[in-house]
Design brief:
Layout lengths: L3 H4 L10 E14 L2 E14 L3 E5 L6 H9 L6 E10 L2 E2 L5 H11 E4 L3 H4 L6 H13 L3 H14 L5 H4 L9 H13 L5 E5 L7 H18 L2 E6 L2 H7 L2 E6 L2 E7 H6 L4 H8 L39 H5 L5 E4 L12 E7 L11
Parallel strand pairs: 3-8, 3-9, 6-7, 7-8
Antiparallel strand pairs: 1-2, 1-4, 4-5, 9-10, 10-12, 11-12
Helix pairs in contact: 5-6, 5-8, 8-9
The structure holds adenosine-5'-diphosphate and magnesium ion.
């Protein structure tokens, strides 16, 4: 018999390609009103050469999840449970020092705000060379040669002269390229990109996404792409984990989740954006807002906004479980679970073809 952990994996089932496996991840925040759980039992996995999107509205715990994976949480936040298995090693079980040594070369992270992430008082060459000096013991001169190579790789023109420039001397798009270069310097197996294009204008956004695709393919990295934008997910990702109020409410291959959503939140998101509706069609926005962290209801986290809410939804929190295939003919027999599809809804089968 399969265990729940085996059956809820999003995407394909090539276990050997799994670079990152996150299980039951929980993060607490200590606030003056008490401790709240911002990430509550999150499960997903990312595969070599593929992009997994973490999708959700602002405040649903995406960045908190990213920081927990990278081991760079704010001092008021605590890892409250779960596994973060990267290439077979559980990062959550390592000491901070072991973690830096192991995860430094294996995991890169890029944030939304490239200006604050770079140090204004050092040249980009010095900052790009840091990884080589710390992790590979290169001299400053050798590290600078590597920094110039990296700048070429991420498409920064005239790297030989620009290596001596400071962050403020670059445009927003070029600064984001520098951050991406820092993240991929040691050819990590995993790249986490947290809203990497949100601060950039539209043409530059497309160039940055193109660069991430190129680097993913060259290095066969697994990419965890964090976004609130469904169009970005549709264009860039292989699989998706939809987050709501610190929980993954639905996951699976993007094409399946978007064509046949099995959680009312996913369905609501898809109906609220123009990508998947005909031109001129009326867009429905999801009424209400996500619950406050201090006020997460028992039962389903989505109950206050859900059009299908029933008594059981208030009483019992639905678990992320495999969903069955769509009925493609008139037979009413239940089809077997679709590989990699999961939803946390008591009525995910009722949403089937609804
Ligand atoms: P997202 O990236 O999905 O927009 P975050 O992961 O940044 O969301 O935040 C998740 C929740 O945690 C939000 O409700 C946010 O207000 C809260 N939060 C994040 N950081 C802190 C902090 N340092 N102190 C208190 N609350 C925080
Ligand atoms: Mg965020």
């Amino acid at each position: 018999m399969k265990t729940a952990a085996q059956t809820v994996l999003p995407g394909k089932t090539r276990a050997q390609d799994v670079v990152l496996s996150v299980r039951d991840l929980a993060v607490d925040i200590r606030t003056y009103r008490g401790t709240v759980r911002a990430v509550n039992g999150v499960d997903f996995e990312a595969r070599a050469g593929e992009t997994l999107a973490l999708l959700g509205e602002s405040g649903c715990g995406k960045s908190m999840t990213a920081k927990a994976l990278a081991g760079i949480m704010d001092p008021v936040c605590d890892l409250a449970g779960g596994e973060i298995v990267l290439n077979g090693t559980d990062l959550a079980a390592l000491t901070p020092k072991e973690r830096l040594k192991f995860a430094g070369p294996e995991l890169g992270i890029v944030f939304q705000d490239a200006l604050t992430a770079l140090n204004p008082v050092y040249t980009v060459g010095t900052q790009l060379g840091e990884a080589f000096r710390i992790h590979q013991g290169l001299s400053a001169r050798e590290a600078k040669v590597q920094a110039i190579e990296l700048m070429k790789r991420v498409g920064i023109p005239e790297p030989e002269s620009r290596v001596n420039s400071y962050p403020h001397q670059f445009s927003g798009g070029m600064r984001q390229r520098i951050l991406i270069a820092m993240a991929v310097a040691l050819n990590p197996r995993l790249l986490i990109a947290d809203e990497p294009t949100t601060a950039l204008d539209v043409t530059v956004q497309a160039q940055i996404m193109q660069l991430l695709r190129k680097l993913r393919e060259e290095g066969q990295m697994a990419v965890v792409l964090i976004t609130h934008d469904l169009a970005v997910v549709a264009e860039e990702a292989d699989s998706v984990a939809v987050m709501y109020a610190g929980n993954v409410v639905e996951s699976g291959p993007v094409s399946q989740v978007f064509s046949d959503p099995r959680h009312p939140y996913t369905k609501g998101l898809l109906e609220s954006v123009p990508v998947h509706v005909e031109r001129g069609a009326h867009l429905k926005s999801i009424a209400g807002s996500p619950p406050e962290l201090h006020d997460i209801p028992s039962g389903c986290v989505y109950q206050s906004r859900c059009p299908l809410v029933q008594e059981i939804c208030r009483a019992e929190r639905p678990r992320l479980l495999p969903v069955n295939g769509s009925a493609t003919n008139n037979h009413s027999e239940t089809l077997p679970p679709r590989p990699g599809r999961a939803a946390a809804c008591h009525f995910s089968e009722e949403l089937n073809n609804a």
